């Protein structure tokens, strides 16, 4: 018997018995149906990976849609544009980091506060690598969403208030607290960017050395610094 299709004519032979697995017709993979919230979260995760790996300019809506297994209109429906998706990702990461640092500042002693802030930043870098890589990249959209520098200023303002109280207690000029807060936060953040690529030494060891330098200065460096806030 011959079967005529739209573009070809093929001989169809009768088959008896089970069809070998390698000759069985392939089934199309079934697409998992997601709720709107689940699809939005998936697109955020896909976008974060791509933006972290390639940067904002190199990523396209087509690529995001393809990686997520959806059509371009689905991405537009949720975020309006690539800029919109990026802005949501940046805003979420900035809130996450600022929240982690702010929540960590519970100690009374200045050195312990420094340890807590540094540890929180490194915890964020370790746990949300894609987010951190996105924050430290430059993007045209950052003018509207904020950028890493503005985030660090927010973190520094949290540290500043606590430094000011300590400065007052020791008789140091309170007006210098903002300067010192930005020094400390900037040093920790830059070290974090470096550590993200090398991952050596271990996180806690790096934090201990950062605190060692900030607390003791070059002249008073300890040979084997260790963290004390957790003990």
Structure in a nutshell:
This protein is mainly α and 231 residues long. It has helices at 36-54, 61-68, 72-79, 82-104, 110-127, 129-136, 142-145, 148-170, 177-198, 203-216, and strands at residues 2-4, 9-11. It has a two-stranded antiparallel sheet with strand order 1-2.
Task: Give the SSE layout.
Blueprint: E1 2-4, E2 9-11, H1 36-54, H2 61-68, H3 72-79, H4 82-104, H5 110-127, H6 129-136, H7 142-145, H8 148-170, H9 177-198, H10 203-216
Antiparallel strand pairs: 1-2
Can you walk through the features of this model?
With 231 residues, this protein is mainly α. The chain has a domain at 90-216: Orthogonal Bundle (Tetracycline Repressor, domain 2). It is 64% helix and 3% strand. It has a two-stranded antiparallel sheet. A hairpin with a 4-residue loop joins strand 1 and strand 2. Helix 3 (72-79) packs across helix 4. The longest helix is centred in the middle third of the chain and has 23 residues, at 82-104. The protein is elongated. 25% of the residues are buried.
